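hi! just following up on the protien thing from before. the input was this:
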Amino acid sequence: MQIAQAMRLAAEHSCELYRDTDSGDWVVASISYDSDACSLSDAKLLEIDAKAFLADYIPDRF
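and the predicted 3d structure came back as:
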């Protein structure tokens, strides 16, 4: 999955995707609901598809 696609999918699900300057990982954080953020490496982001990204990295709203 490319970064732009991951950013778009995150935004569509009320989340943001940004680079953590300390670790270098990508962080997925919810914007409009309370949920813990999660992170993934460049390699992992490039290896997964959209379905896996949504299932594994977009936080549940409920």
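The chain is about 40% helix and 20% strand.
The first helix runs from residue 3 to 12.
cheers
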